[in-house]
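Chapter summary example.
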Amino acid sequence: MICKPSKRANLITQAYSDIHKADDWMMAYGEFLVAPFDGQAVDIITDENIYDEFWQGFERGYGIVMRNEEGLNVLYWHCLQAFPVNKLQPIKRGQVVAQAGNSGFCYSGGVLVKNEDKLKPPYPGTHLHREAFYNNPDGTRTYINPMTITDLSIPISYNVLDAIKAVLEKIMSWFKK
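The structure predicted for these 177 residues follows.
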């Protein structure tokens, strides 16, 4: 079982289907996202690698992929660039791994929100896209409905000050390069 994306995530705005192989959660802009299980941060998708062959077509946002010991992958999409974890870093369930953002295509009231409007409070259309899948030997994926393996009762707890510190440390590391 996996935990929900954050403490405050409580409303699914688009469910899993044959076409939309994920669920979308209404999120507060800047809300801390947590690792759904113990495992590893397999990939972090930002401006640095968003045009890699594997991520082509994902130009509309940033994200993080996590994998557990059984090979289950979870992708969080539309996150900010402040990821307080690094690629291939071990992660623990409930550990802060990103912040909810609005870097993807966002809809509000059925209308696509313009980029310039997404960057102004109240940040309309903010949501988190979450996929769960297994990688197959032939390079394809087997998707599963994330809600069928999500235990909403798993407590998510983290110290907000520690989470903010981790994000700030990651941002400061960008300036040291």
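To summarize the output: The chain has one domain: 12-176.
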